[in-house]
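User: I'm putting together notes for a lab meeting next week and I want to include a structural view of one of the chains we've been expressing. I don't have a solved structure, so I'd like a prediction I can at least talk through. The sequence is below, exactly as it appears in our construct file.
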Amino acid sequence: METSPLRNGQASAPGTARRILVVEDEPTIAESIAARLRAEGYAVDIAHDGPAAVAAEAAGDPDLVVLDVMLPGFDGLEVCRRIQARRPVPVLMLTARTDETDMLIGLGVGADDYLTKPFSMRVLTARVHALLRRVERTAAPGATIVVGDLRIDTDQRRVWRGEDETQLTPLEFELLVHLARRPRTVLARERLLSEVWGWADASGTRAVDSHIKALRRKLGADLIRTVHGVGYALEAR
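Assistant: Thanks for the context. Below is the predicted structure for the 237-residue chain, given as structure tokens.
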């Protein structure tokens, strides 16, 4: 029987519907997304502005958040910052903008994936499924990984560099685990996109760069080595 992803560090009971928070200020779009996700078997809550989104996330502990960037009250970037500060939760960000800078800012504040409007509901549900599968995969029982002064407890999803513990987003955690299981091995951006993100093409290589930058900011600039034109290798000592 399938088990839901982590809730506050613990797996949900078998058979429990995964809960998704949809944050979208256009009621028609919000209801359309919610209806499609409910048809896929998810429990769905809706919020229409920034403050309501933060409150709904704290009250409902959703397994994933679908989050529009442009919101009244305060925007989706601030919502993402606040909910990630409380606990790691996968975030799929929606934006009507095509500027790559906006996408990189969203990834930088803790979003795991993004979609540009207009998008098909089929693509949205595929991205939601992929994000939740990643959480389930890294939530599976596993050994502690130690590389130099880096220690990763894959059971409890906790990370230390030396004596300092650092909180990572779900995708940052999986990316780090992926690199740490192959220390000092150079992994191409395209390979990371395929194996961590589940993307079949190289169109999202900037997403890899953005998450590597976040890992360096949180765990130290010397942690991951860049091999220009190829990819990255974990070099913790």
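A couple of points you could mention at the meeting. The first helix runs from residue 27 to 39. Residues 120 and 126 are 10 Å apart (CA to CA).

User: Perfect, that's what I needed.
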